[in-house]
Amino acid sequence: MKASSHDVDQQGAANLPTALLALTAVTGLVDAISVLGFGIFTANMTGNVVFLGFAAAGAQGFSIARSITSLASFLVGAAIGGRLNVALDSTRRRWLLTFAVCEAALLFVAALAAIDLEIGSAATPIRLYSVIALMATAMGLRNATVRRLAVPDLTTTVLTLTLTGMASDSSLAGGKNPRVGRRFGSVVTMFGGAVIGALLLKYGLALPLLISGLCVMVVALVYITQAPSGETEQ
């Protein structure tokens, strides 16, 4: 029996949080690469600003140039994402696919630039800063997209408010534990992605970057094949 349009819409709405949880795991991968490989964040700009402050104070192991490169590139990616949000007039499926292709392409190019680039190396600054810029631009683009989607507790890149919600809305605090599964899932998937990313770094920087880009594309393709064809932008 053919599903009704209401059932299809419900399915599309249910699939989106699952897709965003998968992208949260990708953030764990990306953060593992950037923090362990370069000593900066490319997805979490709160942490990156803090690292920039450490570097400005002269703390060892932190770089002003790398932090600023990441921050500036993230802002460029977010600005491009905002511009595309305004310019694209299409269904949500096509809109999200466009963003996924762009993010994945940036990560793929970063993987190419990172081939044979040693972790912590300063011997090839142009390639090093190119990889940082490409990763941060991809994450800025992602954040602009997810911000427009505005799915509660699924920013895909930060967990501070998610963890705050888990505690402040818990039974212990007199709350009703809303969206506790989604919140817990965000924490677990980012943790899992970070573990996998850290383990993959033993094989170099290129492999985890390649896997990150592939994951973004797979998540997007799975989502758009299951979402209703007539789904409109939100």
Explain what the structure shows.
The model is unreliable at 1-12 and 230-234 (pLDDT under 50). Helix 3 (64-87) packs across helix 5 (125-149), helix 4 runs antiparallel to helix 5 and helix 6 runs antiparallel to helix 7 (180-200). The protein has eight helices and no strands. It has one domain (15-226): Growth Hormone, Chain: A, CATH 1.20.1250. It is mainly alpha-helical and 234 residues long.
Keywords:
234 residues, mainly alpha, Growth Hormone, Chain: A, 72% helix, globular, disordered N terminus
List the helices and strands and how they pair.
Elements: H1 5-38, H2 45-56, H3 64-87, H4 92-113, H5 125-149, H6 160-168, H7 180-200, H8 206-226
Helix pairs in contact: 1-5, 1-7, 1-8, 2-3, 3-5, 4-5, 4-8, 6-7
**Sheet/helix structural class:** mainly alpha
Number of strands: 0
What would you report as the Rg, rounded to the nearest angstrom?
Answer: 18 Å
CATH architecture: Up-down Bundle
In short:
The chain is mostly helical. It contains eight helices and no strands.
